[in-house]
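Researcher: Quick test of sequence recovery. Tokens follow.
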């Protein structure tokens, strides 16, 4: 949709100011969640009450860090328009497809046509297999193939397969024993020498339940033959540079990863490249794009990152590029059919809406006019937590160029600053630019809500300084519960505690010329509020700005702060924003 279609120019503001919820809780089971994975999706049902309290029906909501587009979904559900943007082409692809409905019947029909014309045959060619069971060998289509790391015994040079040492419901053992010479080997000090198919789940040709078992020798022979086949269609080969933060954190140098192509084993690469090519031939553009939407999630699932989990629910870890020791390789075509069904589930309930999505940095929203937006709801990256450009590259690069990570607003400590690394100060500077843009586009007296959390106080300070520097002022704080809390009430990432709940900080646009006050502003306003509370209702001189100014400056100095930026003019502006003014006297 062209930006011009969003009614921006010359319209009256559709901002509204009703109380915001103090606490919102969402679920991860809705169709917006299961249609495509994205790290840190915000459930749209938690955004809807913020939009409804801050805009009138038909109003315009903007999200300049839109990620998968959940703010857009919430706007559509609430009967508002939305203007979304993100630096990542992958995020833009998700945001567009999450907010633009395509006929589920047309999608289902196209997949049936794929099945009839080529997909069933291709599936048979790549996934026909057999397993040993107690009742004899069973033939059918492979659903999952578990690949296990293999180590070389340091004593007798035999192959030691990790899978053979694992037990269901137990963590992977650190020490594994060589069957031949009985020596134990510590996996931490040894590099795996290969990865081998060890366990199969298969849909029997006779129908009925899935069966699990060891692959037969013919199945192994077949898998080996496919692993030597040439890939004749395009697969992305975007480099994943070893200086990328997620490359380092996921130790990809131990997995021989140089490019995106290395994130896929041969059989999924053959299947994906064929599927991508066929989707590209679909004539109807909305159908083609919706199928590409199902495809990019399929590609993520079919990467080497998909973890085998004995309890089920096999999937890659979100927010990393980690390649596990036991990889569960799925049947690409079956995953794709499932993903299309998930997308149809979304389109079954998504109303038609008016959502414009652009690829741009939040630091430059030149495609949105000044004062044209009624409300901003946004969720910027939280410091050093997740590097979206790195995490998205595996599926995003199927769409073309991956995200320009030099412009990503994150703290990046793994690179030197001259090589694109970013300090907390850089992060703060870029966030300030982004908030200045948000302030420019939002109408006077409108709200800007920012989802945030971090366990590092330096990152919190950076965020709040950026808010203040851009001329936004804190107004209210709400708690966001995205659902599925762990027993402990907190998450743990790389051994570090990460807060489970996010905060939604809602700011309003400060008047012109308000300087930064840091802690001084709060001390001043707390003292003046307490002073006004203690007065009776008369219009005493103690309610005049000059008296209140003395109270404020006294409180700041008494509180051990300097009244930097607290000029009388700035203070008067603060009072105008916080209190009612009657004949020069201020009232709560
Ligand atoms: C926390 S995620 C947003 C997730 C989103 N709320 C959702 O529901 O999917 C932050 C987003 O900021 C984006 N981002 C990082 N730097 C950016 C920049 N300079 N301009 C715009 N977006 C940026 C990332 O690509 C990522 O999608």
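Model:
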């Amino acid at each position: 949709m062209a930006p011009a279609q969003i009614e921006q120019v010359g319209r009256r503001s559709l901002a509204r100011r009703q109380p915001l919820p103090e606490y919102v809780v969402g679920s991860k089971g809705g169709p917006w969640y299961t249609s495509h994975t994205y790290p840190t999706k915000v459930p749209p049902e938690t955004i809807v009450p913020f939009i409804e309290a801050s805009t009138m029906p038909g109003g315009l909501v903007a999200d300049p860090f839109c990620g998968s587009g959940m703010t857009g979904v919430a706007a559509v559900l609430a009967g508002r328009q939305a203007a979304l943007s993100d630096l990542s082409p992958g995020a833009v692809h998700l945001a567009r497809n999450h907010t633009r409905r395509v006929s589920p019947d047309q999608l289902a029909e196209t997949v049936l046509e794929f099945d009839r014309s080529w997909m069933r045959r291709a599936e048979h060619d790549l996934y026909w297999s057999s397993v040993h069971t107690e009742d004899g060998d069973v033939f059918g289509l492979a659903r999952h193939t578990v690949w296990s790391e293999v180590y070389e015994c340091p004593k007798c040079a035999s192959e030691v397969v990790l899978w053979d040492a694992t037990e269901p419901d137990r963590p992977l053992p650190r020490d594994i024993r060589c069957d031949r010479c009985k020596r134990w080997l510590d996996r931490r000090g040894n590099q795996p020498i290969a990865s081998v198919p060890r366990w199969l789940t298969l849909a029997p040709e006779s129908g009925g339940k899935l069966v699990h078992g060891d692959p037969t020798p013919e199945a192994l022979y077949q898998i080996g033959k496919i692993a030597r086949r040439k890939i004749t269609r395009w697969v992305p080969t975007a480099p994943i540079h070893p200086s990328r933060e997620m490359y380092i954190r996921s130790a990809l140098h131990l997995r021989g990863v140089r490019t995106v192509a290395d994130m896929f084993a041969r059989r999924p690469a053959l299947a994906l490249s064929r599927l991508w090519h066929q989707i590209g031939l679909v004539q109807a553009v909305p159908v083609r794009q919706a199928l590409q939407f199902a495809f990019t999630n399929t590609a993520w699932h079919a990467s080497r990152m998909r973890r085998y989990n004995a309890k089920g629910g096999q999937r890659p870890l979100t927010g990393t590029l980690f390649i596990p020791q036991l990889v569960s390789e799925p049947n690409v075509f079956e995953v794709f059919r499932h993903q299309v069904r998930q997308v149809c589930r979304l389109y079954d309930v998504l109303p038609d809406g008016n959502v414009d999505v652009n690829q741009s940095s939040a630091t430059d929203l030149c495609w949105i006019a000044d004062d044209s937006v009624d409300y901003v709801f946004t969720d910027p990256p939280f410091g050093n937590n997740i590097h979206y450009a790195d995490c998205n590259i595996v599926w995003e690069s199927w769409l073309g160029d991956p995200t320009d990570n030099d412009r990503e607003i994150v703290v990046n400590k793994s690179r030197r600053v001259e090589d694109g690394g970013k300090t907390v100060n850089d992060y703060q500077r870029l966030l300030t630019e982004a908030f200045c843009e948000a302030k420019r586009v939002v109408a006077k007296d409108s709200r800007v809500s920012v989802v945030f959390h971090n366990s590092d106080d330096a990152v919190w300070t950076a965020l709040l300084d950026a808010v203040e520097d851009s001329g936004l002022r804190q107004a209210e704080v709400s708690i966001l519960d995205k659902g599925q809390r762990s027993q402990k009430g907190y998450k743990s990432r790389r051994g570090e505690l990460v807060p489970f709940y996010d905060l939604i900080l809602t700011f309003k646009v400060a008047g012109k010329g308000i300087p930064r006050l840091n802690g001084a502003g709060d001390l001043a306003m707390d003292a003046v509020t307490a002073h006004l509370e203690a007065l009776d209702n008369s219009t005493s001189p103690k309610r005049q700005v000059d008296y209140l100014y003395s109270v404020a400056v006294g409180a700041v100095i008494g509180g051990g702060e300097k009244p930097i930026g607290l000029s009388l003019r700035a203070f008067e502006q603060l009072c105008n924003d916080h209190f009612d003014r009657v004949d020069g006297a201020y009232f709560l």
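Residues 104-127 form the longest helix (24 residues).
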